[in-house]
Design brief:
The chain has one domain: VTC, catalytic tunnel domain (mRNA Triphosphatase Cet1, Chain A), CATH 3.20.100. The protein has an 8-stranded antiparallel barrel with strand order 2-7-6-5-4-8-9-11, surrounded by 5 helices. The relative contact order is 0.22. The chain starts with 8 loop residues before the first strand and ends in a 6-residue tail after the last helix. It has 244 residues and is an alpha+beta fold.
Length: 244
């Protein structure tokens, strides 16, 4: 984040942050959004009032470990995904999101469009000698645990920043899952709604403390807090159409 010095909790060389997730009904969204705009700054990467578009390709092993660990509430777990923004190949990130109880850590490495195409085709040998820890560990996961693409998540993110506490609040809207392709750049990809109720997902990430004004803003949402995974939601939705 621009202009914000992070003071997150350190675990070895990993910087951990708190993460809270909520199912947010559309009727609660607009009032909350208006209040938030009085105390927070819109994400500078937003391209419109709606925010910006995110599409991610998630990987899992032969046994669907990431899927079942989430469903069973395993304390320590991780997921790998390739992420793009606004359907462009200008920025392509390989990300590893690790979770340690109520803390998260996100690490990333940039890849090119050609490298993405190789990974999608199952060719990861070019990663053997990479200097990136994230890419190297992904390579080992592909070789040792048969990682392969599993699902695409697609949504629009509206994000806000609060300097105090290094807080990031996001509204993830119009969540969709793929049904006919695992290529995030496929112009003919078919997507289906993954949440069938009039609601969205709100996420709150922060370092060591949550400022009072943000806690006050969230106090009426405590009963809507949930252990939400867009990966799991979309995997469950795609099972209605096919089972990888």
């Amino acid at each position: 984040m621009k202009g914000i010095q992070s003071t997150g909790i350190q675990l070895g060389n990993k910087r951990l942050r708190h993460e809270l997730k909520y199912y947010l009904r559309l009727s609660h969204y607009e009032p909350l959004r208006q209040k938030l705009r009085l105390i927070a700054t819109p994400d500078p990467y937003s391209v419109s009032e709606e925010g910006y578009h995110i599409r991610s390709l998630y990987f899992d092993d032969f046994h669907d470990t990431a899927l079942y660990e989430k469903n069973y509430g395993v304390f320590q777990r991780k997921k790998y995904r390739i992420r793009i923004y606004n359907k462009s190949d200008a920025v392509i990130k390989m990300e590893r999101k690790s979770k340690f109880g109520g803390y998260i850590c996100k690490e990333s490495a940039s890849i090119t469009r050609d490298e993405y195409e190789l990974i999608l085709a199952g060719d990861v040998e070019f990663l053997r000698e990479t200097e990136s820890a994230v890419l190297r560990d992904f390579y080992l996961s592909c070789k040792n645990h048969l990682f392969r693409p599993r699902v695409i998540t697609d949504y629009v993110r509206e994000a806000y920043l609060v300097r105090e506490g290094n807080v990031r609040i996001t509204f993830d809207k119009y969540l969709k899952a793929n049904v006919n392709s695992l290529d995030i750049f496929d112009e003919n990809i078919m997507m289906v709604r993954a949440i069938h109720q009039p609601m969205m997902i709100m996420e709150v990430k922060y370092d060591q403390f949550l400022p009072f004004n943000i806690r006050h803003l969230l106090q009426n949402l405590s009963n809507q807090r949930s252990a939400i995974s867009k990966y799991v939601i979309c995997r469950e939705e795609t099972k209605k159409y096919y089972n990888l």
